[in-house]
Amino acid sequence: MLYSKVTPEQKRATLRELLMPGTARQFPGAFNPLSARLIGEKGFDGVYISGAVLANDLGLPDIGLTTLTEVALRAGQIARMTDLPSIVDADTGFGEPMNVARTIQELENAGLAGCHIEDQFNPKRCGHLDGKNVVDLDTMVKRIAAAADARRDPNFLIMARTDVRAVDGLDVAINRAKALVDAGADSIFPEALKDVAEFEAVCNAVDVPVLANMTEFGKSELFTRRQLAEAGVAMVIYPVTLLRSAMGAAERVLDAIAEDGTQETQVNRMLTRARLYELVDYEAYNRFDTGIFNFQVPDLDIDSNNSNL
Ligand SMILES: C[C@](O)(C(=O)O)[C@H](CC(=O)O)C(=O)O
Ligand SMILES: [Mg+2]
C-alpha cells in the first residue's frame, strides 16, 4: 500500500551490489509510477527513468527542454512506487558544474539511486540521432567531478555518459571513459556503440560497471542480455520500450473506436479491471479502511457534561 518501504539508502546499497561486470542487469524504462510497479512485479533488477520519455510524455521532443524541477519531481514519483533502485537520465546535468552539483542533491532528495550525466552540448539530441555535439573533455571532467563531490550518500551512483563515439570514434570514446572514471564516475554509459565488440572493448578498458542502451530504432542492434553479459556489460536499459508499446496500443484502440464505433474488439488485449486493481494494491486499502473504521462507537454520556455541545 502507498509507497515503497525500502529507503533510498537501501536501494542505493542494493544497486552497488547488483552492478557487477558481466551480469547485464536489466532496467526497463518506466513511463509512469504504475509501470515501475509492473517492472518490479515481473522480477527485473531496477527501473530506468528516461529523459526522452519524460519529455515525450509532456508532448515535447527530447532536446533539453525539461527542467531539473520537472525531472526530479517525476523521477521521484516513479522511484517511490517501487522497491527497486531507480536510475534517472539527468541529461547534461542542467547547466554548469555548480548546477550539476545541485542536480545531484535534488535527485538524492527525490529518492533516486543514481543518474547519468552526458557530455553533449545544449540543446542536446537523442544519442542515436546524427548531428550531436559534445563538449571538450575538460568541460565534461568538471561536470563529473562536481557531481561526485556534491553527493551526500556515497552509494548514489554517478554514471558518466559519453556520446563521443558517434562523433570521434571508439578510441576517443574509450580514452574519455577512462578520464571520466578518474574524475569520479562510478559507471560508464557509452552511447550509440556499433556492435558487441565495441561494448567488449569499453568493458575491458574500464574497471567500473558499463551500461548498454538497447533503445529501438537507434544505431545499436538490439543485442540479447546473454550477448551483452558475455561482452562484460553490467547493466542494460530499455529506455523508451514501454512508452512505445503503450502508445502503440493506444493508437490501435483509438483506430478501432473510430472505425468500428466501439472498442469491443480490443478489450481482450487490455489490462482487466481486476489486474489494474491488483497493481494498485486496492485490496490493501480496503483492509486498512476496515481496520480503522469498523469500530464500535462507545456510548457517550453527552447529556450530563456536554450540554452545550
Ligand atoms: C537513453 C536516452 O537518453 C533516453 O532519454 O532515454 C535516449 C533514448 C532514445 O532516444 O531512444 C538516447 O539518447 O539514447
Ligand atoms: Mg536521454
From TrEMBL:
<dbReference type="InterPro" id="IPR012695">
    <property type="entry name" value="PrpB"/>
</dbReference>
<keyword id="KW-0460">Magnesium</keyword>
<dbReference type="InterPro" id="IPR039556">
    <property type="entry name" value="ICL/PEPM"/>
</dbReference>
<dbReference type="GO" id="GO:0019629">
    <property type="term" value="P:propionate catabolic process, 2-methylcitrate cycle"/>
</dbReference>
<keyword id="KW-0456">Lyase</keyword>
<dbReference type="InterPro" id="IPR015813">
    <property type="entry name" value="Pyrv/PenolPyrv_kinase-like_dom"/>
</dbReference>
<keyword id="KW-0479">Metal-binding</keyword>
<protein>
    <recommendedName>
        <fullName>Methylisocitrate lyase</fullName>
        <ecNumber>4.1.3.30</ecNumber>
    </recommendedName>
</protein>
<comment type="function">
    <text>Catalyzes the thermodynamically favored C-C bond cleavage of (2R,3S)-2-methylisocitrate to yield pyruvate and succinate.</text>
</comment>
<dbReference type="Pfam" id="PF13714">
    <property type="entry name" value="PEP_mutase"/>
</dbReference>
<dbReference type="InterPro" id="IPR018523">
    <property type="entry name" value="Isocitrate_lyase_ph_CS"/>
</dbReference>
<dbReference type="InterPro" id="IPR040442">
    <property type="entry name" value="Pyrv_kinase-like_dom_sf"/>
</dbReference>
<dbReference type="GO" id="GO:0046872">
    <property type="term" value="F:metal ion binding"/>
</dbReference>
<dbReference type="GO" id="GO:0046421">
    <property type="term" value="F:methylisocitrate lyase activity"/>
</dbReference>
<comment type="similarity">
    <text>Belongs to the isocitrate lyase/PEP mutase superfamily. Methylisocitrate lyase family.</text>
</comment>
<comment type="pathway">
    <text>Organic acid metabolism; propanoate degradation.</text>
</comment>
<comment type="function">
    <text>Involved in the methylcitric acid cycle. Catalyzes the cleavage of 2-methylisocitrate to yield pyruvate and succinate.</text>
</comment>
